[in-house]
Amino acid sequence: MAIVDGNQRHREQLSDALLSFYAVQTYGDSTNALMGLGVTRPGLVLIGEYVPPSSGVNFLRAMRCERELGHTPVVFVSDNGDPSVLSAALSAGADDCIIKPYRRSALVKSISAQLNIKVERAWRELPPLARNALQDTLTFYSSIADIFDQSLPIQYGAVAESCAALVDAVTTNEFPAILEGIREHDYITYAHSVRVATLLALFGHSIGLPRPQQILLASGGLLHDVGKISIRHSILNKTEKLTDDEWVIIRSHVPAAVNFLRASPDMPKGIVAIAAQHHERLDGSGYPRGLAGGQLNELARMAAIVDIFSSMTDQRVYKPKMAAEGVLKVMTEEMAGQIDQDLLHRFREVFLDTMPAKPTP
Ligand SMILES: [Fe+2]
Ligand SMILES: [Fe+2]
Q1: What is the CATH number of domain 2-114?
Q2: What is the pLDDT of residue 149?
Q3: Which CATH number describes the domain made up of 126-354?
Q4: How many angstroms does the Cα of residue 312 sit away from the middle of ligand 1?
């Protein structure tokens, strides 16, 4: 996501409004923006009316002439809704326009609509189960913010239903398409959660768990980081070392998720355990409670393995991705006391057996 606007205060306002949702780069003039966007290739560009040395509309025209930026979704932010400016922006190639003063929800809605168009276009080419798995989990995950804001409980039935196609895709070996389809998704916590859900379902399937247990594992994977919904994107994806205070905020996603899930009367205990214990480690070095050995739930041990594996093999703003084999080696050799090595051994076999040609999901 990029913002191109000559007005510094407006750049900051836009950036603040979006920081909990997207990684944002900002540019204050046309030359730097064209150079930067050509390199970073953002999923969407927000353009304000004033972009030095000329106007936002002229910048948009120049951007559309760049081969790699010709089809990047653009939302044009108009100062006062002047019809001639809106019409010029749309003819220059804006996909949508919003007018100041805008509500934050309208801004996010406009951006999401454009990004979903882009994502769904790619998903349409996937095998049906993988496509349904991505669409169903995204619909469910997007609804969590509303559920969260209204302090309503999550219905287990709704989570389980959203994971049904995902589990079927695992059973029929279509799951690599899910991992591939999620790779470019802009909503990082959702993307990570789908990866964890898919690999947990695969793990459960490969060790012979029945379908309801696979659904439960996938649901636990989808919800394990739900507490991150209230943490700013700038902290979740900080490129520099986190301060002690920021670590406290990051760690708070665990009790936040547990409180959220415990409010649901029908939420299975296994799902709460996955959320509560996925950062605990066998040697007691984890958080938030420093549980050790037999205190760790079996499903949570599986979730911890998949969570570590997914995070380390994923490319993030603050780190490059590692190859799957290298990650499994680190987990075996350097984290031997922290994670269940019997389960890790099984996960390693499952992963290498099922994805020999794609070592990194
Ligand atoms: Fe987590
Ligand atoms: Fe996680």
Answers
A1: 3.40.50.2300
A2: 63
A3: 1.10.3210.10
A4: 13
